[in-house]
Amino acid sequence: MKRQLYFLLTMLAMSLVSCDIIIKPDPNSVTTNVDSVVVNVKVVGDSLVIKAEVEPVDISQCDMVMLDKGKLFFYNSGKPAMVPFAAETDSVVNCVFTPDNHLYYCVPVEGRMMLRSIDLNEAEPQPKQVGDWGVDYEKCVTETYGTVSPLTYYPLRNMLGLWHEFSWDSYSLTQQKLYNLSNGNITDWKWEDMGTDVEEDEFTYLFEVENGQYWFQDGIARVCLSDKIDFNPYVSDPDYASERDYSLISWSPDKSKVLYAAILEWGDLPHGILAVASLDGETQLPLEDTDCTGFVADWLKDGSLVYVGEEPLSPSDPDYDANWHYRAHCIKRVFPDGNTEIIAHCGDFQVK
Questions:
Q1: Cα 61 to the chain's mean position, in Å?
Q2: Which of 33, 56, 75, 286 has most Cβ atoms within 10 angstroms of its Cβ?
Q3: CA distances from 332 to 16, 172, 232, 258, 263 (A)
Q4: pTM higher than the cut 0.85
Q5: CA dist 193 to 139, 190, 197, Å?
């Protein structure tokens, strides 16, 4: 249990961030409300190619927000439609929803991390300055992958957390600032205190690793969740291959499926892929373009899984090099029936 908790906390301290975006209408389609609504998004170079939208989209009804190159884009998975949030002109580096229908996010201002919010209950929400974290932006960036600390919401304490101060001993950010949403106080919280406020999944005990496989058992049935997947092709370097291990990440909203990490090798950090499995063992889907370290994944209310994956760059892309395997981040959606689609090309999102 301690190993699984440490593994999940290590992954929590990593997130993907970028800066500035250009929106360009598709010359082959008619566009409406371009300043407020974007649908059927894909990327060509540094531009979003968009198609026509029939009706405006209320961002309070959006169930996701995407962060691409410093800009926020609210997304309605039911339409689907995407709304760029033009009211924020500074570069956003992380964000998180809270249950009261607010989005909190951080922007660096003169090198310091500032906390802002958007009240999605308002008719025309505007950015609001919430507080100064009192920590430099560069202190919130890891020295391994250069990723920025995510903004985390802790429901048990109604607090936001921002990690900082990278350590090579743990390959992670080790100290945390906490913002109390009830009274506005900012306090310090160290890594060794983290375990006192982690809400452990009450069903974690239902899963176990045996003979290199991942098993679910609830007292009625014992089902293997990994035997239909050949994990060997996903070992990138046999010299670092380790004894097969697994870690539960999250449940689908109806508790019929789970997202788990298959740990296949160890270097400085664990590596492997994510996989989705139904609890009857019939559906087992490896998310081939993922890594279990630094992943971003979450469930939508309809049972779809949304995650950040990768895809190869095409020869026409300016960053393409035939001698190297360059890949671009993209957000993918796995529907309950197993079909997959790309929502957008960027590297971070939050689900409401």
A1: 20
A2: 75
A3: 15, 27, 23, 17, 21
A4: no
A5: 20, 6, 8
Q: Is 89 exposed, middle or buried (CB count within 10 Å of its CB: 0-12, 13-18, 19+)?
A: exposed
Rounded CA separation 160/177 (Å)? 8
Output the average pLDDT for the chain: 80
Q: Smallest Cα–Cα separation from 94: which of 39, 18, 8?
A: 18
Res. 281: pLDDT tops 70 = yes
**What's the angle, vertex CA 80, arms to CA 317 and CA 248, rounded to 5?**
80
**Dist CA 227 CA 209 (whole Å):** 12
- Which ranges of the chain does DSSP label H, i.e. alpha helix? 2-12
Q: What is the DSSP letter of 147?
A: P
Taking the C-alpha atoms of 285, 287, 292 and 298 in order, what is their torsion angle to the nearest 10 degrees?
Answer: -90
pLDDT in tens, 244-265: 999 999 999 998 999 999 999 9
Q: What is the pLDDT of residue 311?
A: 72
